[in-house]
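We examine the record.

___
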Amino acid sequence: MRQLLISLCFIIASITTAFAGEPAKSNPRSMTFPELRFEIPQAERVVLECGMPVYLLADPELPIINLSAMVRTGSVYEPAAKSGLAGLAGSVMRSGGAGGLSPEKMDDELEFMASAVESGIGADMGTVSLTSLTKNFSRTLRIFSDVLLRPDFSEKRVEIARKQMIEALRRQNDDPKEIGARELSKAIYAGHPLGVVPTFESVKAITRQDLLDFHRRFFRSDNTILAVSGDFEREAMLQELNTVFGRNEKAAPLVLPDIPQPAQLFTPEVLYGRKEVNQTVIRMGHLGITKDNPDLYAIRILDYILGGSFTSRLTMEIRTNQGLAYNVDSRFDVGRRFTGSFIAETETKAESTAKAIGLMKTIIAGITKEPVSDQELKSAKEFIINSFMFGFTSPASIVTQRARLEYYGYPADYLEKYRGNITRITKEDVLNAARKHLKPDAFKLVVVGDATKFDKPLASFGVVRELDLDLKQRVPQP
């Protein structure tokens, strides 16, 4: 026992001596770090012989090349009677064969090369993209150019895509969240092409010739911007692109249809979708701003503080303090070509529907009444500035970012000035932006759920218009 006590004393003494020699541990709350500096990566802009701008950024780390094309088109240019035309064209450009290569042979050849070519058309942009091993790039590029400029729109594949779109329409009311998002967009953009959605009748009316005409009108070399990144040599890439796309064709100048901005009408509306579910979907909002708005940077900070972070006002009150929802958020979707929107959303149990709606509107109204706190402003700025670099995580994201800025007409120095513009925003700027651009009394409110379980009638928020979610009478028979 005596020997054991002596050994223990020796061990304790050794440990004490060892720790006495260690420096005091730093307190993480008082630690300081040098200012984070990040230089924005650059991409080279070159104009091909056909007049097509291309952004280049070589990266030999992996034997892969990425290429994407952005085309000035979109569903805003399709006739309302044939809504869905742009989406159908964007899908079948790739799936329907191109340049005389049948759909089946194109699928097989791309799969054999481990290459991918994809296409699509959204509201205000058409895209065609390519991913290829460097050794297979030349052949993949030629398939890409055919899909971009010479799609065949196989009648069989057109019909397959049409049936898929009709099936999606059959199921469009299965998900209450999808209903909420769709109906809010329709309400905000009522009377504008952005508020038009495909119907069974419009999809059925689309012909193969409509797809050919729509494609021919917009998919031209003088209406396209390219972004290329990956394992390539600059001169060889430019030579290959010029060979594939040729010289500038002396075609008549492209004149895009004149689509007006949405009318600035702010009138409240309450829309109800009857759905026998235990959880209510809540969506509210109105028109927002465009990228040219001088309050853009104050809006970015406002977004973070109000509903764009895990510590936002909406999240802290509705989720953390009240326990009414797992997810709640809000955001300004800044319009790049057309006026964007402000949207606030959540899902809550049916019995707390009215309480959640009231709280959301109260919190949103509150940020228009007094300045945000110093800590809120500081946290928002730090997050936005420190997360800025994550928009440039790969060569593909860098060239795509640069091409998108040109596509949407941003100033050439937009990225370089972005962080500085955020830094200069004051609490007064945020308050002024909130007062100018948030109008809780003019919200379009969409509620999807079971009104028999609501804690208060929806009529307490205004005159209710019930949505017609019954598709049985409108589904076309095979």
Q: What stands out?
A: The chain has two domains: 44-245, 269-466. Residues 374 and 427 are 8 Å apart (CA to CA). The first helix runs from residue 2 to 20. Residues 44-245 form a domain with the Cytochrome Bc1 Complex; Chain A, domain 1 fold (CATH 3.30.830.10).
